[in-house]
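BUG: 3D viewer hangs when loading the predicted structure for this chain

Environment: internal workstation, default settings.
Expected: structure renders.
Actual: progress bar stalls at 90%.

Input used:
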Amino acid sequence: MDGEATAVVEAPGGVRAGARDRRGANRIDLMSGHRELSESVVENVLRAATLFSGLVVVLVALFVLERGVPAILHSGWDFFAATGWDVDLEDAWSNPLGATFGALPLVAGSVLTTLGALILTTGVGLGCSIALVEFSPGWLRRPVEAIVQLLAGIPSVVFGLVGFTLLVPFIGRLVPANAAEVAPEVVFDGQALLTAVLVLSFMIMPFFVSVTSDALRAVPRSLMDGGRALGLTHWRAITKIQLPLALPGIIAAVVLSAARAMGEAIALSMVAGALALLPSF
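Structure tokens produced before the viewer hung:
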């Protein structure tokens, strides 16, 4: 009888416990459903943003192609292999059908400026990254990295303005006195390929240093310590262990820096003279 009474007494409690368990399970299912719905919404929004950005790039490419095809059809392959853009541009006002435009100086200027900036940036920027990651104390590394990240976000027109006001006069003072006799069609005021390379190097170097520093820091510290334990010097451990392992990240930094360098136009037009002339070596 006592057992039966106990069972009768405890039954309502068991019912209430079962109800609480069911409510808890329903609440968990509801939260899981909300989570899945929010994840689905975020996924669809990101997918739509990706498709939209890709569509914008395609539309821009089609617009440029539509505007550029008539000039290419008019000039043929000479558009990429001929010079005289400025001269033909002046003659086109009087004889538009007989003018032939050549983009070789523009293409060569972009390629030479980018290559020069990448060579300078890779050499100096790699040394700066190694110095920040391996040789700088914390009290110096943290503010310097903050300054580098701040410089990476400065608009290109600011670099162009600083280069136009500081570098152009400085390079102009280095021009030989007989430069006007060698090339009378060019105004030697400091706006040259060298100025463009320097300005572009300062523009992409903070980005390169930031990415390369992250690549060097991603190398496991245990590998560096193991190399030091085997008798390697600090610098030899960097060159034989850290740099080879960080090489994919360094290559990515070079590619991204080259992409940014090729896309710059305002800063270079401010310091390079905006003339369609092939540089003479």
